[in-house]
Every structure is written in structure tokens, then in C-alpha cells.
């Protein structure tokens, strides 16, 4: 609640007191978790054994949290927290001033601390696995390597083919005056149609949109409105709504237990990407909503649906990850994933990192950042110690299609229903097969149960090739 307030309504000068309050709570929670009594209780529960699937899952989830928290020496926990808190503000200034030299020593320190952290946690094969597991339970670099290699092989030529026909889609037409009240009305209408329950959820404003929740009946999303591009906030609302559904549909029997809510960042992101891209950027969706859009934003009244549909799906290599389109986005992630491994394994020195970044950008996207601000300094993640986080974005993309295909296999009418703004069958399938389980199953088990197969790249590659070959009329 303190964090939600910090990012929505807190006055700017409240930051210092809020940081104190948050760190006090974090310290108390950590102390309770690592207390010897907690370990004794878990051991006793393990000895008694789980009597059903939920009790077994409770043992898995609490044992995992306890082991992770106790394996890392308290001094290291504190050092990481303090270093990252300071590094984030150093990074903010360094990014603003394009000052790589100012940030480099901090990145060096963070890489070093995360290496120590990974060794304290332990790993079987590769150091990266220990960090990745914090965000994606059970996932390893050996699992990701073939997926990402296949994705790179499929994406790089697709992007090149699209670039040759870049003139077939005009995205500049999205930049039209966008009244804020109209954006609010349109977003609330669509969220309501999709099934967002306003008795259990809120939509507020924040500079960086996010979703948070305090139980399944109090789920809060945020967005921001741009004055010259109404589609931006709509897609960000749909994205956060996908996250919100995961929490709202968590089984009531799991409420107030460690099993409530999403099981991993990758699975969570699959839900947001599914609503943002597979629903919100689909032709069927806009067949229904475009007339209403034109009413709310009259600047679009003379523009045909197909031009608009192309514009919201334009593919264009760019420097900034957060502004990247569906196809190039994953190349930004693969670049970071490769660099994180090289840094952690000591194959890349921090001093050489900007050059490595630029070489990969040129290789994958044909661009070289003119400044560090638009290159290696653009993301907050590394300054916050979030090494191992990035792959979950691409996992989310891959899984969004795998889940959507499974939903369609069960209910072939889903695409047609989306075109009639009837979202209940899709939402129901996701709630039944993914959301209600919370953390009962591991991400791997959940994927297998919901789709009948292990995590696979094939449906996603097929989707990308099919959708964008059509939009760009590629042979
Ligand atoms: Zn997200």
C-alpha cells in the first residue's frame, strides 16, 4: 500500500520518510522469515507431509522462500539493498547526463555483489540460473538458450524483410490530439467490456504504469495519458488489466496464503501481453471498437480501419526497449540476456560493456545508439540489481501465444467472439486453466497442464511470421 501510494498520490517530498517506512517493513518481514522458529515450523510441516495438492504446494513455496532468504548472509542482503538503493539514484542522474563513467563503478559493484549472491544461493550448471530463478522458478539458462536462439534466427530476417517494405505502414497517423477525458472514457469502457470488476479494482494515474494488489478483491492498475497519441494509454491499460485478471481470478481458497496470485514473472507477463497484443492489437478487436474510437477521437474519422490497424502494429527497429514493437522487442531482451551472462561469468568487463552493447544493437537491429542514454544507460533494472529479470519479458511473449492457442483449441470461436466484444469465454478459460491455481503448480507444471505441452517457441514464431507477413504483404 505504501508503494502504491508512493507511485500515485504521495507528494514528492514524502520520498525520504517513505523510504524509511518501506525499509523498516522489509527488515521486519525478512527477520520473521529467517527466524529459526520459521525453519522449525517448515521442517515439522514437511515431516507431517502435505495431505493434498495445496498443502504440498505450500511446503514447496515456503521452503523455497526460506532457503533463499537464509542462504544469503544478512550482511550481503544489507549490502545489496544499500548499494542498489544508491545506485538507482546514481543511474538516474547518469542517464540524464549521459554519463557512463559515473555509473560504471556502480554496475561493477552490483555485478560483483550478484555473483556473491548467486554463489550463496547455489546453482547446478550456470551462475545465471541462481538469479533467473528469483523471477522464474525452475527456469535455467540451458532452457532459455535454444528458445532465444530460435527466436533470434526467426526474427532478424523478418525484421530485415519488413524494413525493406517499411513504407507499407504509416504510424505517424497515430499522432493526433488526444483529449484526456476521452481517453479515460474509452479505456474504462474497454476494461469494463473485458470484465474488469470495478468493485474489486481501480484505475489511477502513474508516471510508470504498473499493477499491484492487496488480496484478490483489491487489485489496482495505473496508466498515463499522452496528449498526442491516445493508443499508448489504451495498450498500457490492456497490459495492466491482463496482470490484474491474474490476481483477481486467483482461487478464493488460496486467499491470504503464500499460494495466492501469479506464480512467476514470465507467466504474469504472458497474461498482460495476451490482452495487450493478441486481443488489443488484433483486427477483430478493432472491427468492433474502431467506430467508437473515431467518435471519441474525431481526428481519426477520415482514416480507414486498415490504415489504423497497420499503424498500431508497425514494426520499426528502434533504440529504446520500452518503445519497441512486438517483433523487435525480443531482440532488445536477447541482447540484455547475453550481456548479463557475459558480465556474470566474467567474460565481459564492465568497462567494455558499452561497446558490446553497441555492437549487438548494430548486429540485431542495424542501429548504433548515438548516446549512452539511448544505449546501455536506458533501463533501470541493472541499477536495481535486477540481473536475470529481462528474459521474463520474452518468456511472457512466447507463452502469451502458447496459452492463446490452447484457449482457441478449447473454444475455436474465441477470435470471432473478440470481434463482438464478447471476452467472457477467453477470460473464463484463462481463469480456469491458469489464474485460479495461483502458485499451486510450478511455472513448468502450469504450462504443461494448461497447454498440454512444455514451453515451446513454435506457436509464437508462427504467429509473428503470419501476422506481420500479412500486414506488410511479404511473400
Ligand atoms: Zn507487464
Give the key terms.
single chain; 475 residues; mainly alpha; three-stranded mixed β-sheet; binds zinc ion
Written as H for each helix and E for each strand, in order along the chain, the element string is HHHHHHHHHEEEHHHHHHHHHHH
In DSSP terms, counting alpha (H) and pi (I) runs of 4 or more, how many helices? 20
Bound molecules: zinc ion
Question: Which overall shape is indicated by the principal axes computed on the Cα atoms?
Answer: globular
Q: Main sheet, how many strands, which sense, barrel?
A: 3 strands, mixed
Q: For the residues shown, what is the average pLDDT?
A: 96
The low-confidence parts are none
Strand content: under 5%
First-last Cα distance: 52 Å
Share of residues in helices:
55-70%
List the strand order in the largest sheet.
Answer: 1-3-2
Radius of gyration: 23 Å
What is the count of β-strands? 3
What structural class should be given to the helix and strand makeup?
Answer: mainly alpha
Can you characterise this structure?
This protein has helices at 2-8, 15-34, 36-48, 53-71, 74-97, 100-121, 127-135, 141-164, 180-194, 230-248, 265-279, 283-296, 305-312, 329-344, 353-365, 391-410, 414-418, 424-433, 443-451, 458-471; strands at 201-205, 211-213, 219-223. It is mostly helical and 475 residues long. It has a 3-stranded mixed β-sheet with strand order 1-3-2, covered by helices on one side. Helix 10 (230-248) crosses helix 11 (265-279), helix 11 (265-279) packs across helix 16 and helix 14 (329-344) crosses helix 16. Residues 239, 243, 269, 272 line the site of zinc ion.
Amino acid at each position: 500500500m505504501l508503494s502504491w501510494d508512493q507511485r500515485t498520490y504521495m507528494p514528492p517530498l514524502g520520498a525520504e520518510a517513505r523510504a524509511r517506512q518501506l525499509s523498516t517493513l522489509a527488515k521486519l518481514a525478512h527477520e520473521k522469515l529467517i527466524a529459526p522458529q520459521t525453519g522449525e515450523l517448515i521442517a515439522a510441516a514437511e515431516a507431517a507431509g502435505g495431505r493434498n495438492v495445496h498443502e504440498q504446494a505450500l511446503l514447496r513455496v515456503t521452503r523455497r522462500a526460506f532457503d533463499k532468504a537464509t542462504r544469503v548472509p544478512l550482511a550481503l542482503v544489507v549490502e545489496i539493498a544499500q548499494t542498489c538503493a544508491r545506485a538507482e539514484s546514481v543511474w538516474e542522474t547518469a542517464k540524464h547526463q549521459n554519463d557512463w563513467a559515473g555509473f560504471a563503478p556502480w554496475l561493477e559493484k552490483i555485478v560483483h555483489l550478484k555473483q556473491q549472491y548467486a554463489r550463496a544461493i547455489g546453482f547446478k550448471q550456470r551462475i545465471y540460473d541462481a538469479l533467473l530463478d528469483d523471477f522464474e522458478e525452475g527456469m535455467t539458462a540451458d532452457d532459455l538458450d535454444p528458445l532465444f536462439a530460435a527466436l533470434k534466427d526467426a526474427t532478424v530476417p523478418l525484421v530485415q524483410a519488413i524494413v525493406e517494405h517499411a513504407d507499407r505502414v504509416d504510424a505517424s497517423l497515430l499522432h493526433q490530439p488526444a483529449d484526456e477525458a476521452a481517453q479515460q472514457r474509452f479505456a474504462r469502457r474497454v476494461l469494463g467490456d473485458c470484465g474488469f470488476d470495478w468493485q474489486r479494482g481501480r484505475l489511477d494515474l502513474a508516471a510508470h504504469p504498473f499493477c499491484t494488489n492487496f488480496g484478490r478483491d483489491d487489485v489496482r492498475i495505473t496508466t498515463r495519458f499522452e496528449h498526442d497519441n491516445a493508443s499508448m494509454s489504451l495498450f498500457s491499460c490492456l497490459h495492466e488489466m491482463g496482470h490484474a485478471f491474474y490476481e483477481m481470478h486467483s482461487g478464493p481458497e488460496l486467499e491470504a496464503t503464500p499460494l495466492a496470485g501469479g506464480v512467476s514473472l514470465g507467466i504474469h507477463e504472458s497474461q498482460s501481453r495476451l490482452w495487450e497484443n493478441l486481443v488489443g492489437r488484433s483486427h477483430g478487436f478493432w472491427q468492433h471498437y474502431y467506430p467508437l474510437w473515431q467518435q471519441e477521437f474525431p481526428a481519426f474519422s477520415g482514416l480507414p480501419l486498415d490504415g489504423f490497424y497497420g499503424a498500431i502494429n508497425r514494426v520499426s527497429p528502434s533504440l529504446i526497449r520500452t518503445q519497441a514493437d512486438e517483433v523487435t522487442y525480443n531482440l532488445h531482451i536477447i541482447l540484455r540476456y547475453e550481456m548479463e551472462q557475459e558480465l556474470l561469468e566474467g567474460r565481459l568487463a564492465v568497462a567494455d560493456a558499452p561497446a558490446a552493447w553497441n555492437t549487438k544493437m548494430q548486429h540485431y537491429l542495424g542501429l548504433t545508439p548515438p548516446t549512452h542514454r539511448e544505449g546501455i544507460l536506458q533501463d533501470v533494472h541493472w541499477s536495481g540489481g535486477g540481473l536475470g529479470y529481462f528474459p521474463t519479458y520474452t518468456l511472457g511473449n512466447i507463452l502469451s501465444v502458447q496459452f492463446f492457442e490452447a484457449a482457441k483449441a478449447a473454444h475455436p470461436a474465441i477470435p470471432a467472439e473478440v470481434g463482438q466484444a464478447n471476452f467472457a469465454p477467453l477470460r473464463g478459460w484463462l481463469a480456469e486453466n491458469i489464474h485460479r491455481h495461483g502458485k499451486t503448480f510450478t511455472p513448468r507444471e502450469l504450462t504443461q497442464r494448461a497447454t498440454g505441452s512444455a514451453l515451446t517457441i513454435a506457436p509464437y514464431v508462427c504467429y509473428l511470421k503470419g501476422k506481420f507477413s500479412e500486414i506488410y504483404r511479404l511473400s
